[in-house]
Known about the structure:
- This protein has helices spanning about 15-20, 35-45, 60-75; strands at about 50-55, 80.
- The protein is built from 3 helices and 2 strands; from the N terminus they run ααβαβ.
Amino acid sequence: MSDIYVKPPPINFDKIYSQSNAKSPIVFILSPGADPYSDIVALTEKLGIAKFKPIALGQGMEDKAANTIESGAMRGWWVML
């Protein structure tokens, strides 16, 4: 058997958004080096979503992330960790 690499199809963020709702998170399982940030920012701009709060997770960011998630849930923000 030969080792054939089949590239996965590109992520369709419009389709993911259309199938989502405000009560369920969207979780991306990423491979090393993958970064959907610019695609998600482009989607928020396209949809006119101004309430977008990205948080970079790292050491000591737990409290800030938890507070942003809580505020986002109350205020209707998109939160990206």
